[in-house]
Amino acid sequence: MIPLWAQIAGGTAALASITSSSTQTFRMLRVRSAEGIAPSTWILLTLSSLAWFAYGISVRSPQQIIANGTWVVLVIPLTWFMLHDKPARTRIGAELLVALALAFLLGLGVLNENIPAYIGMPASILVNLPQIRYTIRHGRGPGISVAAWAFLTTSSYLWFTYGIGAGEIPVVINSGIAALLGTTAVIALLVRPVPKQALTVEMTSDADLVTSGVENVEVPLTPDSI
Fold first, then answer.
1. Burial class (CB in 10 A: 0-12, 13-18, 19+), 47
2. Contact status, residue 94 vs residue 62, Cβ threshold 8 Å
3. How far, rounded to the nearest angstrom, does the alpha carbon of residue 211 sit from its chain's CA centroid?
4. Torsion angle defined by CA atoms of residues 180, 122, 189 and 40, in that order, rounded to the nearest 10 degrees
5. 153-183: pLDDT as tens digits
6. Whose C-alpha in 34, 44, 53, 68 is 20 to 30 A from the C-alpha of 104?
7. What share of the chain is helix, strand, coil (3-state, %, to 5)?
C-alpha cells in the first residue's frame, strides 16, 4: 500500500502539473504563438505526455492519469501553433498522428504496463535539453511561460517523492533527472530575457491596435491661411 505522504506528494504533483500545462496553454493562446519553445522539446514533450498518460492508465494511477492527461490536452494547441506556417491539412494530419500514437501506447500498456514508461522515460529526461540550448542561443520567446516550466519542475520533484513511496522505479529515475534538468531550464529562461525583436513586434502590434493602422499624417502647426 502506498504511504499517505507519498499519496499527498503525488496529488500535489498532479496539481502542479495541471497548473503548468494550463499556464502554458493560456500563454500560447494569449500571444497566438508558440515561439520560444524548441521544436525538439515539442516532439519530446508530446511523446513523454502520451507515454506517461498511457502508463498511468496501465497501472491505474489517478495521479498519473490526471497530471499527464492535462499535458496530453496541451499537446493539441501546442502542435497546432508549432506548425503555424504549414497548411491546415498538415496541422490536422499532425493531430491525427498524435491520436494514433496515443492509441498505440495504450495498446502497449495492455501488453506490459511498464512499456509506456520505458518509452516516456528517455523523452521526459531529454525534453529540457533542447529547450536549454534553444533559450541560451535565442533568448526567451514570447510563447513560452516561465511560470509553467517552474511548476513543471516542481512537479518533477514531487513525482520523485511519490515514486520513492510507491516503489515505482521508472518514476523515481525519470522524475529525479527531469527535476535537475528542469531546474537548469528555468534558470536559463530567467537569465535570458525576451529578444528585443519580439518586444518590438509586440509593441508594434499594440500600437496598430490603438491607431487602427492609420498611417502618419503631417499636420502643419500654423495654417497658411485663416
1. buried
2. no
3. 34
4. 170
5. 999 999 999 999 988 888 898 899 999 999 9
6. 34
7. 80, 0, 20
